[in-house]
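Table S2 (continued). Query chain:
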Amino acid sequence: MAEWEIWAVIVALALTTAITRSGFWLIGHRVSIPPRVQGMLRYAPACALAAIIGPDLVLDSGGQVHFGLGNPKLLAGIAALGFYVWRRNMLQTIVFGMLAFTLLRILHVF
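Corresponding output:
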């Protein structure tokens, strides 16, 4: 790829990003989202997080699904979920989950 092509791609991507991100800022006051859609959008962050974290918890290093006591990520995730239900503190849950995962890896429980 020539140098001018690289710069053309960078400029095109910058313009595309600016246009798509400023669209709601420019015309957002003219568009109204129905209350039902607004209610559904409340769950979008949780769904996105589950879609990112879920596969990582159940896939082993070879990419195979592993639901068992030999999966330290799944065990640490279950422990972190239990800790969150008990304490309701996200920062403590993250620290607890990482500690549980580290201990499971060090102890070779899997």
